[in-house]
Each structure stands twice: as structure tokens, then as C-alpha cells.
Give the backbone structure.
Amino acid sequence: MASPIQIERLRIEIVETVAREVADTFARSAGVAGGILLGDVLFQEKQDRLGALVRIEAFLPASYAEPVPTSLIFTPATWEEWDRMRSLVPGRQVVGWVHSHPGSGVFFSGQDLINQQQYFAQPWQVAWVSDPVNGKNAIFRWVNGTMVETDDWRLVRLLGQALPGEQRSGSPVSVELPPVAVTREVATMRVRAPEKPALVEKDTMKGLPAEARVVRERISPAGPGWKWWAKMLALGLAIFFSAALITVGIYSFVKKDQPQQPHNVSLTIVEGGGKTSAGGLF
């Protein structure tokens, strides 16, 4: 099983010449093919968090492995061959293995997991699955005791360094960078989160001489808001109704105290009877 060491972030770099060798081996094979991957591991610890960089620098094909559907069985002859070939790449350790799923897609099968548990159980040892028919690649790593696919990998080119793998591969086959890796690198370099624009207070009198600013402030002072106008309207209505009530009260008081004037009644005497008529009543 996998080691209890927990690597929080594992980054994988595949040297371009190794990718060419792997592609060449899979192109010559009619079925499932594979091999082991050699390279180096660099660790970094920061604030109790462990990270690792796995650089795959060499590929040793499994010429004597038994192919099964979507996997390989490593025979004793396979390990003996690898022991002889490792002298060509001294100072490199086993960092994982690679095999093909021709036309079957990239996934981790049951036999793949058995191989990983028996031979590549260290937390930095990875598995590379390739489908050369459909042009797909995937890298799997240990996470909490199981193998999961990771996107944290890319192809790299070592400048000024010739690896032994280049001499064993014969005429290298040109291989394109995986689309996922290229897209991820471009996104990392070019895509940035938009920045919030700074809020700038607009000054309508900016740039005016001092005398002109004083004159404009006197002529066009900043007007009050709608709340101020609402208060002024309410105060005006209160004063108006108060004045009206006071006026009505004064008028009623003055009218009550004035003496009543007697009505002027004109009497008309009519000859020939005692009937009188009060003018203005009828």
C-alpha cells in the first residue's frame, strides 16, 4: 500500500525526449505496451505542508511484460531486463510507470491498481496512461490511498542536455504537446482577474483659478437635498395652518363682544282700517 507520507501538491514534468520515446514505442506495438519511468524527485516543505516535483527523465520499455486488456503483467524477465538497462541512466530512481490503452480511453483499471500497489507504492510514484489511437494522455497519482487523475503536469525541454534515451530511440517520432498542458500553460500566462477601477471623486471646479472658484461657489452653492426641502414644506404648512386658526379665533372673539344694533322698522298707516304693515318683514 501507499506510504503514510502525505504530499499535498505533486507536480509532474515529463522531458520531451521521453515523450517521443514513449510515442515511438506505442506506435510500433499492435497491442498494450509500456515500461517504467526513471527520474528525480525534489521535495519542498513549507508551514508543515509537503510538496514534491517529479521530473520524468528516462523510459525503459517492458519488452517481456505480458499484455492483458488495458494493462500489463510484469514478469521476472521484465525486472531482469530493467536491472541491466538502468546502468544507462545512473543516479535516476523509479518514479512510476507508463502503459497504453489503444482505442480504449485513459482510465485506471483493476490490474493497473494492482501493479501500482505492488511495485509503485511510494506517494511520489505516478502512472501515465496513454491512448495513442485517440491521442489522449492522463497522469494518475496517490491521494488518500487511491489513484486519482491529476492535471498538474506538463512537458518540458532540457536545453543543452542529451539524455541516453535519445540514442536508444532511433529516429524520434515528432509528438505534439498535450492540448490540456498547452491550454493550461497559456491560461496561466495570459488570463488575469479584472482589477476593480479606482473610484475618483469628480471636481467640477478643478483647474479654475482661486478667484474663479470663490465666485462660482458663491453663485452656485451646493443645493440642499430632497430631505431638506421636505422639512421646509412641512414647516411651511404648519405655520400656515397655525396662522389660519389664530385668525379665525380672533375674528370670532371680536364679533361676540360687539353690541347688536336695533332693526329699523318703518310703519305705514293705511287709511280706512286698523291694519298695520311692518316694512321689510313680508
Summary: Confidence is low (pLDDT under 50) at residues 162-205, 261-282. The chain has seven helices and twelve strands.
